[in-house]
Amino acid sequence: xxxxEGAVENMVESFWGNRNVFVTxxxxxxxxxxAEELASRGANVVCLIRDWTPASRLVxxxxxxxxxxxxxxxxxxxxxxxxxxxxEIDSVFHLGAQTIVGTANRSPLSTxxxxxxxxxxxxxxxxxxxxxxxRIVVASSDKAYGSHDRLPYRExxxxxxxxxxxxxKSCADLISLSYYETYRLPLAITRCGNLFGGGDLNFNRLVxxxxxxxxxxxxxxxxxxxxxxxxxxxxxxxVEAYLLLAEKLPETPFAGQAFNFGNEQPMSVLxxxxxxxxxxxxxxxxxxxxxxxxxxxxxxxLDCSKARNLxxxxxxxxxxxxxxxxxxxxxxxxxxxxxxxPAPEDVRAI
Length: 350
Known about the structure:
Elements: H1 3-13, E1 20-24, H2 29-40, E2 44-49, E3 67-71, H3 77-86, E4 91-94, H4 101-106, H5 108-127, E5 135-139, H6 164-183, E6 187-192, E7 194-196, H7 206-215, E8 221-222, E9 229-230, E10 232-234, H8 235-248, E11 258-261, E12 267-268, H9 269-279, E13 288-289, H10 305-311, H11 319-332
Parallel strand pairs: 1-2, 1-4, 2-3, 4-5, 5-6, 6-11, 7-10, 8-13
Antiparallel strand pairs: 9-12
Helix pairs in contact: 2-8, 3-5, 5-6, 7-9
């Protein structure tokens, strides 16, 4: 048997070999990495894409040549139903969302339409095709928890977002649970920390913005006071978490459950910037602290013991190793570092 034949055989033998997989938000950070990994494992990947973003990682990688693209919006139920029905989708990863806090504050209605109505459209489309759908993973967020006095967040904490973005994720999360409880859709929910990794071109976010500044020998800009605490989570670990969870569905005790995923190593904004400057060899640069952040929760981080105990899952990358790989990606893509674009998946930083 030749090497090529062996590779094809391995793909078919993998869990995802020849499965028909629908990914929303595929031009975003997580979506691009997930779609690429699914394609490499032999899945027939169908991506719903609203805007054509030439600078996105998916468009600029060879993965685009291995996926099917449906053009349309999450807000259009007919488009979502058509994609799932015509491509005979059995597995769904719903990552698409409007994810920028500032955008949500300026335009709450469009955020609610994308994040809330978009979620119920995906779930309703799945409900209308019950003979096809075997598993659904819905991307919620640690922001869905809102503010709690006790940290870290556990999955049984109330979902009590107060500001537009946080509320949109609380609602999407609860709607997903309602579709499981009422219609027994075979779904699970992820609540991740702040994702980072190569391919995030929203440079108003902490990690890509700070890396770009360091590579340009410019002081990173921090829009908060630098003391906000978050859980930062490398995108390649997130991909593994999503795939592992999906592979467990629709079995008990995974269906109808939410799972936290993160590094469980909360860090302040200033600590993250210092790590980036250290890895870039630019420790002499001092960040500009604007202290302008509004409608943000001071401390948010996750307890991931449920994922460890039920899924036997742990992140493979340390924060330092993940950040090093991320910096290497941006350094290799320096010609594109002037581009800013919206990324339709769940990742934010301050």
